[in-house]
Specification:
Layout (H helix, E strand, L loop, with lengths): L11 E3 L10 H28 L6 H30 L3 E3 H34 L4 H4 L2 H19 L1 H7 L16 H4 L8 H34 L3 H33 L8 H24 L1 H23 L1
Antiparallel strand pairs: 1-2
Length: 320
Amino acid sequence: MSPYNTSNSSLGFILSGIPGLEEYHFWIGLPLISMYIVAILGNGTLLYIIRTEQELHEPMYIFLFMLSFVDMLLATTTMPRMLAIFWSNSIEIGFNNCLVQMFFIHFLSALESGILVAMAIDRYVAIRHPLRYTSILTTQTIIKICLVIAVRGTAVMVPIPLLIKRLTFCKNNLLTHSYCLHQEAMKLACGDFKVNIVYGLFVILSVMGVDSLFISLSYLLILKTVVGLVEEASLKAISTCAAHICAVLVYYMPLIGLSVVHRFNASSIPNLHILLANIYLLVPPVLNPIVYGIKTQQIRRRLSKIFRGKEKWKLTSSKL
């Protein structure tokens, strides 16, 4: 196959739905749009509550605000394009548009991973040093943490589309996913892409690897602290971490499963890697606001106030 020049902006890639299930794409799109609506409404509600509720202007909820905002962006980066594939068979994506989507998917994933680390450290400080919690996690400290997360994500992910842009590609431009990922696009190149492989491994180890290590270390220290507390205090401490633990599992379990599937033969379930890739990107924005809405007492209280206010307004309107 002859190579073509990737500098030509008219060239592009072909995105896939779910191979073998093309006749069901319309019905697959229904739960997908439902997930998108839940993600936008759920995260939007969290953003509104944290923004308007004065008692939630604490480090834990500031980080949750950031997580919800990133989840909304991640859902908007992936889901509408997937709906276009399932409902209107819009499978072509321009080369530069693919690079933009690729950058934002990887960049937002790095931001989410970094925020989960910050939330783990926040829980450790809250449990280990409760009296000095606000003096340690000051506004200036939070701003510095946010800047480090953003700068790291930008610095690490900007080279990814640039490394793809330098490659030459063959006539085969079919991607097996419904969105553009670095690890898949590079495999379509005609030439040597060892640099992409090495850099991709570096990104995984320096971002997800280091972050998972810090999260694990934080919870080991939390467990060590909890062991020394009385039973009631230890249960209360663990309950404050429950939502964050769920968010970590929702983010990292599909990532680990996807990494395992890509390295071992999964021919018995041919679409397993596609399913896990979709779960990795689509499920966290949907589940995170639900988990925090259920597990966080302050947010539950505020939600109940909102619903009670709506019920009172309906009663007043009906009387009028």
